[in-house]
Amino acid sequence: MFMNKMALVACFSLVTTGGHAADLTATYESAPVVVDVFNWTGAYIGLNAGYGWGDFDHSVQTKRPEGKSPLPGTPESEIDYEILDQATHTASPDGFVGGVQLGYNWQFDQLVVGVEADIQGGNIKGSVSGGDAPYNFAADTKIDWYGTARARVGYILAERFMTYATGGLAYGHVESYMSYAGYDSSVSKTKAGYAVGGGAEYAFDNHWSLKAEYLYTDLGDIDSFSAQRGYTKFSAETDASFQTVRMGLNYRF
Asked: What is the rounded distance in angstroms from the CA atom of residue 3 to the CA atom of residue 6?
């Protein structure tokens, strides 16, 4: 009789212990998984460095009135000129560029829209000479600094990687030292133009990203030379356009 009671107690203990174990298994919940989703929205600042090259076109011209010299005081619009010399001498400048940039991005799904401004120091310079006497020509021209203020429109191809197109205002300082037809001249001007290009950017960290960028920059035409001997006029115009490739490092706030 005593043995039967002990057997019943043992069976009851096993049943209740199994029930508690089942309850513990049923109420267990795994910890939630936190997914780190990167977003391009926000402000950033960075550094860049690269190489610039291009074409500086120097268009020269010598002209004088046709036939007899006009009477003093004759309006310029009433004088017919003949061209004695006209040519374009092209320098092939190149050099280092480097600077800083800052901007802001807004991300909309896979589209990234932003604005960026940069200021660059550099030494993009080139020399050219040519022409036949008496219209010998020589010029040394350089851009020692420039900057841009541009819009950017990008598309996210993969997580943390996007390509983009960019364009906007450009400005820069152009210096040119020139000799033409026996006259010497120098000019130093800050000009405004435009810049267009594109690039790619990869965020290797939540705060840091690397970019590669190409830009075509045109600062427009510069009246770089003007002289006069009697009624004969000598002039030159310089077109300062160049291209750059740059690598940049950005920090995102």
From this structure: 5
- Half-sphere exposure of residue 98: CA atoms within 13 angstroms, side-chain side: 4
| Neighbouring C-alpha atoms within 13 Å toward the C-beta of 124 | 28
CB environment 131-157: b (16+ within 10 A), e (fewer): beeebebbbbbbbbbbbbebebebebe
Q: SS3 for 25?
A: helix
Task: Give the tens place of pLDDT for each residue, 1-17.
Answer: 444 444 434 434 444 44
* Residue 141 near residue 94 (C-beta atoms within 8 A): no
Q: Tell me the C-alpha to C-alpha distance, in Å, between residue 230 and each of 54, 69, 97, 180, 245.
A: 37, 9, 44, 16, 47
Domains, the chain, ordered by start: 42-252 (2.40.160.20)
Question: Which 3 state secondary structure label does DSSP give 13?
Answer: helix
Q: Interior CA angle at 158 toward 201 and 48, to 5°?
A: 5
What pLDDT digit, counting tens, does each position of 176-235 carry?
999 999 999 899 999 999 999 999 999 999 999 999 999 999 999 988 888 888 888 999
Report the 3 state secondary structure along 160-206.
CEEEEEEEEEEEEEEEEEEEECCEEEEEEEEEEEEEEEEEEEEECCC
User: Comparing 170 with 224, which gets the higher pLDDT?
Assistant: 170
How many residues comprise the chain?
Answer: 253
pTM: 0.81
Model confidence over 57-114: pLDDT tens digits? 999 999 988 877 777 777 877 788 899 999 999 999 999 999 999 999 999 999 999 9
